[in-house]
Amino acid sequence: MIANIVFASTFGLALLLFGMKLMEAALRQWAGSRLPEVLGRTTSTPLKGFLTGTLSSATLQSGTAVTVITIGLVNAGLLPLGQTLGIILGTNVGTCLTTELMSLRLHDYGIPVLLVALAAWGWTALAGEMQLLPRLPKRWIGPMRFGAAALAGFGLLLIGFAVLQSIGPQLLQSSSFLELTSKAEAEPIWGVLGGAALTAAVHSSAAVIGMSMGLANSGALSPETGIAIVLGANVGTCFTGLLASLGGGKGGRFVALAQIALNVSGAALFYPFMSQLLAAASAFAPDDPAAQIAHGQTIFNIACSLLVLPFAQLMYRRGSSGAGKSSGLPPAA
């Protein structure tokens, strides 16, 4: 049984991660070339940066990708430090789209979605390079091809979610797993630490939260522990940005450290109120543990961003003047 659980959980998480990375790669290839220019032009105030960070993260299905791009722009001197604060807040909200999509109980349609995506990809090839079907307008081929790849990634994500959900009954027969979950329910800090460590290891908060949602759907994990994992995943997701900043200058490290400060502060602030956070999420989905975890993540990230946003203008002005003096970056307009 243990071998089956390990194989299924590893395979399900791998599908989940691969699906997310395929979606991110396809959407980034389609829209990513325009993203640096968009970030530079539409982040002149914290509110604009917040909206741009939210939309960019939701479009790319990855807040980490937007954070890494932001660090690169700051290191290159193309984006003032003060304009990054709103972006960081926005990425936390935009990344919730993935888990909200997973909460819609679409996992039964993973294989049909994947087949439709493969058919659409094949159509672009047959009508394009192979010329075996009537030719499509050139301007259609690129968006259709990248859209098909993103849809295939979404299909793999749904299949992975279904695989993770299927191991729930076996986990409920494991005394070791029950002991771990009981400890996490009695001391939620272990759920927070576990979520942070696993997110740092796999570089995807959405994958870790998606895994907890799958287990919660099958009854193997309580929503309370899922909320603790959400707080931890929000901290663990900073690890990728920190790694990306190590090879750059002070500006990139400032962005990474600002993200860590904001996310750790948010998790610490909400830790004593996890039961209230779960109650608020349960109001939207009373009988759906997976949706409660997804909604809890969304409420948590929106609340944290709205709490910080009023203070971001002051931080923005100080960061802009400090960046112009100390790192040679152009001041914000």
Instruction: Give the strand tally.
Output: 0
Helix-residue proportion = over 70%
Order of helices and strands: HHHHHHHHHHHHHHHHH
How many structural domains does the protein architecture include? 1
Strand content: under 5%
Contiguous uncertain segments of 5+ residues: 323-333
Explain what this protein looks like in three dimensions:
By secondary structure, this protein is mainly α. Helices cover 80% and strands 0% of the residues. This is Na/Pi cotransporter family protein. Keywords: Cell membrane, Membrane, Transmembrane, Transmembrane helix. It comes from Cohnella thailandensis.
List keywords for this structure.
Na/Pi cotransporter family protein; disordered C terminus; transmembrane helix; 333 residues; 80% helix; transmembrane; globular; mainly alpha
Reconstruct the topology from this structure.
Layout: H1 2-31, H2 35-41, H3 46-60, H4 63-75, H5 84-94, H6 96-102, H7 110-127, H8 138-166, H9 168-171, H10 175-186, H11 189-202, H12 205-217, H13 223-236, H14 238-245, H15 250-270, H16 274-284, H17 289-326
Helix pairs in contact: 1-8, 1-12, 3-4, 3-5, 4-5, 4-14, 4-15, 5-15, 5-17, 6-12, 6-17, 7-8, 8-12, 11-12, 11-13, 12-13, 12-17, 13-15, 13-16, 13-17, 14-15, 15-17, 16-17
Pfam families: Na_Pi_cotrans (PF02690)
GO molecular function: sodium:phosphate symporter activity
Transmembrane segments: 65-89, 109-126, 146-168, 189-215, 227-247, 254-274, 294-316
